[in-house]
Amino acid sequence: MKENFWGEMSEEYLKDNPEPPPLTDESLAAFEKRIGLRLPQVLTDLLRIKNGGLIRNTDFRFAGKEFQVTYIKSVADAESHNAIRTYLHVLDDPDAAETLAGLQQKAGDLGRLLYVAEALDGPDAYALNYNRLNVTGEPTIWRIALEYGEAPRAKQIASSFAEFLAG
After folding, report:
1. Exposed e or buried b for every residue in 90-110, given b needs 16+ CB within 10 A?
2. Backbone phi and psi for residue 63, each to the nearest 5 degrees, phi listed first
3. Residues near 60 by Cβ (< 8 Å), separated by ≥ 6?
4. If 0-12 CB within 10 Å is exposed, 13-18 middle and 19+ buried, where does residue 152 land?
5. In the predicted model, is pLDDT for residue 2 greater than 70?
6. Quick check: 56 and 6 in contact, CB under 8 A?
7. What is the per-residue pLDDT across 65-95, written as a single tens digit (0 to 9) for each?
């Protein structure tokens, strides 16, 4: 993966949202132990170049439809907004019980659904789904759309993180 994959964040944005520290073997091992899941090698290789952030080419295409992916989440110690985290921590609001149930019905155990990327201008998020593995045992990639007052939408869009990046 080339370094030109990553975009640049403005100085103003970085004042309130500092870049996470570089991904190390130790921080990756601690993260994977905490969540109980192993990240795909393609994703960890990408995060070793830069541990999350904006990407340059935001136009993606899956199954003939156009999507936008603008941000890849980081590996971090805390459950921050910019960190990869499970949907149990994304939807931890007590008022989200119905949404949680609907998403779990569609995608499976939310503790095995990792929020890894997003589009900044819409409800779309992208998740590694460890409930639905591909033929080589890697998690599939799902598009998750959560909009207030609507049932959650969840659908597989790629069979691996490598296929997702190729989108």
Report:
1. bbeeeeeeebbebbbeebbeb
2. 50, 40
3. 66, 67, 68, 69, 164, 167
4. buried
5. no
6. yes
7. 888 898 999 998 776 778 999 998 877 777 7
Mind listing the pLDDT tens digit for each residue in 152-163? 999 999 999 999
Most distant CA atoms of the chain, gap in Å: 44
- Give dist(CA 159, CA 138) in Å, integer: 8
pTM value surpassing 0.70:
yes
Tokens of 66: 């156009």
Residues in the chain: 167
User: Where are the domains positioned within the chain?
Assistant: 3-166
Pairing verdict, β 71-72 and 65-68: unpaired
Sign of the CA dihedral with 114 first, then 1, 118, and 71 last: positive
Q: Which two tokens stand for residue 132?
A: 């639905």
**CATH code given to domain 3-166:** 3.40.1580.10
Chain position carrying tokens 């590996």: 75
